[in-house]
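Bug #2210: token dump truncated for Phosphoglycerate mutase?
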Amino acid sequence: MQTTRLTLICHARTVAQKLACFPTNEPVENIGLASGELSERFDAARRLICAPELRTRQTAAWFGADAQVDEALRDCDWGRWHGVSIKSLQNAEGAALHAWLEDPHATPHGGESVTQLCERVAVWLSSLQTTPEHVVAVTHPFVIRAALIHVMRGSAFHDIDVEPLSAVELRFTGRWRLRLPGLGVQGAL
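Reproduced locally. Full output below:
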């Protein structure tokens, strides 16, 4: 059986992330990567794709000049919350923010629900299953979360491979959260 290998990479940090704001189409922060520093991490035979937003296209450029935009990897549609800080929402729309955090079908912002995002990503993942190749996809945190939820299917024990010397970070701040470390470039990813 041939294998489809998918490497999901979260775009580099933006000012919106640093300020805990819902994103706009902002650029990544200037982190001063040397040309080619990340492009050598993957075999040249890989297929490089990215979401259409500026931050993902800029990040993908660090992995190669041949990135193709895939609309299925676009960020969640945050509706009227684009550019708004979490703190502002807590003050002005606390109940709406809480509803969105607790109900995956909720769309108080008028955009895309978590459920809709997960369905979109599941369709995209299914489209990759028939192509045995290595796909490197630069996308957004919510798209990566949706892919992980799809793969884990709620009964994930035998679907998780833990490689030697791998590290998984869990943090508890009122609820357990999985933290996936970046690729080792300080402040980049």
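Output looks complete on our side. DSSP finds six helices and six strands in the chain. Marking as cannot-reproduce; reopen if the truncation happens again.
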